Structures are given as C-alpha cells and as structure tokens.
Amino acid sequence: MIGLIFTLTLGQLLRQRRVLLLGLLAAIPVAITLLFRFTSSRADTGLPEFVASMLDALVVSIGLPLTALVLGTAALGQEIEDGTAFYLLSKPIARWQIVVAKLMAAWVATSIFVTVSTLGSAAPLIGERGEDLLVPAFVIAGIVGALGYTTLFLALSIRFNHALVIGLSYVFLWEGLASSLFKIDGVRFLSLRAYTLGIAGAISEAPSTVFSARLDGPSASVLATILIVGAFIYAVRRLERYELSERV
Amino acid sequence: MTAATSRVDAAPAIEVSETSRWYGNVVAVNDISFTVGPGITGLLGPNGAGKSTLLHMLAGFLRPSSGTVRILGAPAWQNPGLYQQVGIVQERESVYDGLTGYEFVRLSARLHHLPDVEAATRLAIDRVQMETAQGRKTGGYSKGMKQRIKIAAAIVHDPPVLLLDEPFNGTDPAQRLQMMDLLRRMAAEGRTILFSSHILEEVERLAERVLVIVSGRLAAAGDFRAIRRLMTDRPHTFAIVSSDNRALASALLADDSVTGAQIDGERITVRADDFERFTVHAPRIARSAGVTITEVDTLDESLESVFEYLVQR
User: Fold this and answer.
1) Which of A221, B164, B202, B313 could form a disulfide with B195 if both were Cys (CB 3.0 to 4.6 A apart)?
2) Kind of pairing, strands B258-264 and B293-298?
C-alpha cells in the first residue's frame, strides 16, 4: 500500500509545473560554479573554498529548504487543499502508512534535486586535490537534511492551511535572518540548516579554512533525529485526528 | 426528534444518537438522533443547515462534539477500517486529473485491497456507464462525467452503505435519470444509501425516506408525505371537482376541519386544518349534500412546500 501511494504521489509531484522552477533553482549554483571555473585565471586556487561556500550558501541554505518546502507541503497539504486527499482518507488505510508514503515521495523528489544540484555545483572539484570528501559530505548531509525539512513541512501542511507561508518564514526569518544575519548563536540548535551543515562537517575532511560547521556532528545528528521522529509522530497523529473542514 | 427509518427486521446501518457538533460558539448540528436502514434516504436542508457537517460525521471525517455516530454498529470517527463497508462520494469535483477514468477507479480498487482489481474496476465503470470515456484523462471530463466516475470509484468495493454528498450536481437530465436508476438498483439489492441534495425534486423522485435538517436540528424524518400529514397545525389545501361546487362548498364550510373554501372556476379550493379528519369527512359531507365528488387533488404535497413550512416553523 505504501508503494502504491508513494508511486502515485511521486508522479503527482513530478508532473507539476513548479518542478521546472525547482530545476532552475537547482541549476543556479551549478551555473555560478561553472562561471567561476571558466572565468577564474587560476581556477584550482580557491576552488574548494568557492565550492564549499556555494554548497553552504546556495544549495543547503536556499535550494534544499525551498525545494523541500514546495514538495513537502504539496505531497499531502496540496491534496488536502484541492480535495484529492479525500480519495486516500476514505480508504481502509492506516494513517501512518499514508504519512510514510507521502514523506518518502517528497523526500526522494527533494533528494534528487538537491543531489543533482550538489554534484553539479561541485563537479569541478570532483577528483581534484583539496576535495577532502567535501562532495560526499554534502551529498549525504543534503539527503539527511531533505528528510528533516520534508518531514517538518509535511507535518506543517497537515496542521496549517498556509504551511507554505509558515515554512518560508522559518527558512528566511529564522534560519536566514536570525541565524546568518543577526548571528544569534542559539538558533543553531533549532535549525535544520545547522544540522545539515553539522553532518556535512562531520563527514568532510576539509580544513576549517575551506569549510566549518557551527554545530558538531554528533549534536547535529541527534538533534536532526529528534526533529525527524518528532515531526513524523506529530504528522501521523494530526492525520489520525484530521477533520475534513467545510471547504474540503 | 428521533425517527426510526429502518426496516423492522433489519438492524439500522446508520445510527446517530444525540449528536451535536459545534465550531466555537456556532452550533452546526444540534442534538440529532435518527437511524437509517436499507433503501434510499434523502438528506435535505437549506444551505448552512448542517447537512455537510452531518454527512462528514457519518463519513468519519468530523468528530462529533457530543453523542455517537455509528455505521454498521461501529463508530465512524477514527475508524479507517470502516471504509471497507462504506462508499463515499464527496461534493467537490476534484479527481486525480492526470489519471484516466479507468486508472482512477482502478486506483480506488487497489487502495481497497480488492482480490480482483481489474474485474471490480470494469464492473464499477459498467454500472455508471462510463465505458466509452474510461480511457480519457479525468481532467478533461465534464462535471457530470466526473460525478459518475467518482461514484464508480466509491462503489468499486461493493459497499453495503453508500453516502453521497450532492451526487447529481452538474449532471444533465439524462445522466441524472441514469444515476437515479443505478442508485435504485443498488438500494433494491439491500444497500443503505444516504444522499444529500438541495434539489427538492431529486429527493422527491428518488428517496423513499427523507431527513430534513433545519438550523442544525432534525426537523423531520420519514416518508415526506407522512411528515406532511403529521403537521396538523398547518392548513392543507385541496382542489375538488364535484357535481355541484357551490352546494359542496357551503356544506364543507360547516365542518370544523375546514377553515376556508372558495370556488375557482370549475373547482373548489378548500383549506383544512386536519388532514386526516378532512379526508374522512369530505366524502360523508358530500353524500349528505347530495353532491358527487369527481376529483380531489392536494395542492401543497410537494416536498418544496413541506420544506418551506419546516424552515418557517
């Protein structure tokens, strides 16, 4: 049953026009890296630093959360909005199975975009000196981060009508302004971006001059696990108690 | 009000007991009790009366604030297993636009874990007569076609209980007749079918019984003509044609049950307070007056007149 709903949802997600926008979003860091590679006079100098900053600032901080936001809220929230969720909710299927299938679909779709974007952005560095496991670190961290973000946004979409707006506020106001702009230190403990970068930092062997995370690997992994499990349980409970409103 | 609308020999498929549902301070459904058994029952009421809230509670999509809602003896709320026995057609038009009609019904069959998905799909599509359009994407369907394919998806697992929210929306007259025929056949097979509609004529033509919801309360339940007759506090209007209208009108006015009589061309329009009493007394009065009654019609027996009266009450 999970497989059937997963396939259906993945098909629905990837058929949407917004997928083209997500593709463009994923392509931006790739294009910038290529531009750097071909316009820099000595491209090998500073390339690891440039790629690391690109993966941090564009892929993990913008591409990943926005892609997960769009797909995570669409997987079930959009179906609730447009009324097609009815066809799943009116079947003899345990609610946790619906959440697992929807989550898997959003996670897989987000991971595809983020992985392609990561590999594309880091392509000039692959096999080069100074790579220091930076690429696999960001690929793995991106996939874990995708699970965290999609679980969070899926749960929000079951609870709120305007999950997209709430998610955008989280990404830009909390993780963006509070963490990056105002440098509020405590934000890293409540930030999926910080968890993702912490996991990347734990896997990567790059020197701190190239890339350093604000959260250590074990803390990032534990906090990410707590968030994923907590958001998943919340999503299942919300769906079990979900009441079809008058508009649905 | 409690109304037993089930057959005596059959346990009620739907049981609603002292059920209320409120949103904050707004009471959408107020202390409703009724039972529904096999056959077709219409759920009727003006917009905002609480029909959708009630149907959603029956379908397990809304938690009653108080009271109980049971389908086939099991609670409707938080009981997904119940959907093996219940088919639901929602009012909203939405379907999976990217799927063909066949794929849409087949998906429903697969989600129901049916042993022979293909056979069940074909049978459901046949029943709503959508064979010719089954290969087209549902996104391109007309409103009526969407309604029919939604019904096919709802009956693919052959449920004993069927709940339909405004099932005839968007259908043309021919499709409506076809679907009414389908529902009648399904009811004849022993199923319990409850549908809501704001088209009084649909309810009148299809439903054996009716539940009338007004301002969140169950205003009436049962056969709509019987309900009408129980409302003795409202004058009933009859049109009578007789051998001597003037003499009959005078004689009728002398009876306590008659509140007014006037001659309108070839007939007399008579208003009576007590339906039962009038129908018993009128022939006797005519005989005494030496008048022969050749025709009697009730002028306000339509569901609309019953409904208007209930709303004003």
Assistant:
1) B164
2) unpaired
- Supply φ then ψ for residue A229, to 5 degrees: -65, -45
Per CB-CB distance under 8 Å, the chain B contacts of A12 are 96, 98
B194 and B91 within one domain: yes
| Overall domain count for chain A | 1
**Digit-coded pLDDT (tens) for B112-145:** 999 999 999 999 999 988 999 999 999 999 888 8
Is the distance from CB of B265 to CB of B239 less than 8 angstroms? Answer: no
Which residues form the domain of B280?
A: 230-312
Asked if residue A82 is part of any domain, the answer here is yes
Are B94 and A84 within 8 A, CB to CB? yes
- Among B182, B212, B229, identify where a domain stops: B229
- DSSP strand pairing (B74-75 vs B66-71): antiparallel
- Kindly report the pTM of this predicted structure: 0.81
Task: Decide if A226 is inside a domain.
Answer: yes
Residues of chain B contacting A93 with CB distance shorter than 8 Å = 80, 111
Greatest Cα pair distance in chain B: 74
B286 and B189 within one domain: no
Assembly ipTM = 0.82
